[in-house]
Amino acid sequence: MARGAEPGKPSGAVKDAGGKPNSGELEQRLSRLEVELTRKGALRQPVPEGERSERSGSVAQAMKLSSEFIAGVVVGGVIGWSLDRFAGTSPWGMIVFLLLGFAAGTLNVLRAAGYVAESGNIKSATKEDEKN
Q1: For the whole model, what pTM was predicted?
Q2: What is the CA 128 to chain-centroid distance, rounded?
Q3: If you compute the radius of gyration of the chain from its CA atoms, what whole number of angstroms results?
Q4: Are 84 and 90 in contact (CB under 8 A)?
Q5: What is the per-residue DSSP string for 88-100?
Q6: Which residues of the chain have pLDDT under 70?
Q7: Coil, helix or strand at residue 107
Q8: Count of CB atoms within 10 A of residue 112's CB?
């Protein structure tokens, strides 16, 4: 390394009148940096717009399903706790209503995900098979 050169900088760097590296050298350094970061996996590739909206839709669906489930369990727990508090049936009200809240939350998640038909829209698979 040349005397007086800064560590990490090439000694024969072309500099402009202000003592700064010229734009050609900066472009080379930037491209080398991007190649190294990509090679090491530190540079993230931009996510395409269609994939981004698909991901955000999936996150929204997951948040909806988890809140449906948690709401069922919490409401069941509050009802059970209230019943135990005012009727003096501790701990049976809490146990029964937590289980009912769990079942209601699970049913709500299955309905929201489309695995179970809503009440009133029940169609049995055997009737549809008979038509075909």
Answers
A1: 0.52
A2: 37
A3: 32
A4: yes
A5: --TTHHHHHHHHH
A6: 1-21, 43-45, 47, 50-51, 120-132
A7: helix
A8: 15
Which pLDDT value is given to residue 9?
53
Contact criterion met (CB below 8 Å) for 98 and 108: no
| Helix locations, 41-91, DSSP H | 49-87
Cβ 48 vs Cβ 57: under 8 Å: no
Choose among 121, 98, 126: nearest CA to 111.
Answer: 121
Contact 74, 101 (CB under 8 A): yes
Say whether 39 sits in a helix, a strand or coil: helix
Is 102:76 a contact under the CB 8 Å cutoff? Answer: yes
In degrees to the nearest 10, what's the CA dihedral of 21, 27, 32, 33? Answer: 80
What are residue 21's phi and psi, to 5 degrees? -65, 150
Number of neighbours of residue 59 by Cβ within 10 angstroms:
10
